[in-house]
Amino acid sequence: MKKTGVIFCDFDGTVTENDNIIAIMKQFAPLGWENIKEQILGQQISIREGVGKLFSLLPSSKKDEITEFVLSQAKVRDGFHAFVDYTKEQGIPLYIVSGGIDFFVYPLLQGVIPEDHIYCNGSDFTGESVRILWPHACDDACGNDCGCCKPTILRRFDSSKYHKIVIGDSITDLQAAKQADEVFARDFLIEKCEENNISYTPFETFYEIIDQLSKRRLTYEHF
Ligand code: MG
Ligand code: ZN
After folding, report:
1. Residue 67 in 3-state DSSP?
2. CB burial readout 162-187, b (16+ within 10 A) else e
3. How far is the CA of 218 from the centre of ligand 1 (A)?
4. Tens digits of per-residue pLDDT, 56-75?
5. Average pLDDT over residues 27-37
6. Which residues touch 186 (CB under 8 Å, ≥6 apart)?
7. Ion ligand 2 contact residues with beta carbon within 5 A
8. Least distant ligand from the CA of 96
9. How far, in Å, CA of 101 to CA of 162, rounded?
10. Among the bound ligands, the one closest to the CA of 138
């Protein structure tokens, strides 16, 4: 049976060139935030715990300043808009699965990706410090405490029907990459794919992904 292609694309460091959470922390967090980052990357603490801790370092009163800053510094990776158009032309559903936070993910994708195709974390600025909300937490099959659980989202798509393509750059994409049919990786995710024997195609711009997907369609007709 032919499988239908579906794409799950990370946001920070993938759609945008830099990681927006890291950019926010560099600009606003007190010293010590980097220890938390290292603990996340070293998998000593979960992503949910780490990201929650990072944002709890920031006072809610800085909401406008933080939002303005993050929107002003974010740069969308080359080819992303062409890639969105390509997926529409080809009828391949494109979901953004992001460990990023709603207050910057939604505005940066406004008019490009509809909100019902974006999975990300939420935020609450009503308390003293910023609190992150987790509307897409791990299901029973994931013990990774992801925060926004990419493998949980992928599991909702029947593997016998869907050819799942994961695009990402970091540790937060690893669990999704493990159950993908095809992975496009850059940066730290390349190392992690190699460590875990996951086959991947490296990329730097979305034009390369368009090229690769176009070639595969010629070879296999429809995945
Ligand atoms: Mg990322
Ligand atoms: Zn999970």
Report:
1. helix
2. bbbbbbbbbbbbbbbbbebebbbbbe
3. 30
4. 999 999 999 999 999 999 99
5. 94
6. 13, 14, 168, 169, 202, 203, 204
7. 138, 142, 144, 146, 149
8. 1
9. 27
10. 2
pLDDT (tens digit, 9 = 90+) per residue, 183-217? 999 999 999 999 999 999 999 999 999 999 998 76
Rounded average pLDDT over 75-91: 97
**Ligand nearest to C-alpha 154:** 2
Say how far apart CA 171 and CA 188 lie, in whole Å.
7
Write down the pTM of the prediction.
0.92
Kindly state the average pLDDT of the residues 75-84.
98
Instruction: Please give the pLDDT value at position 157.
Output: 95
Beta bridge partners of 39: none
* CATH class of the domain comprising 4-215: alpha beta
Which helix (H) or strand (E) covers residue 211, if one does?
helix 206-220
The tokens for 69 are 């800053």
Nearest ligand to the C-alpha of residue 22?
A: 1
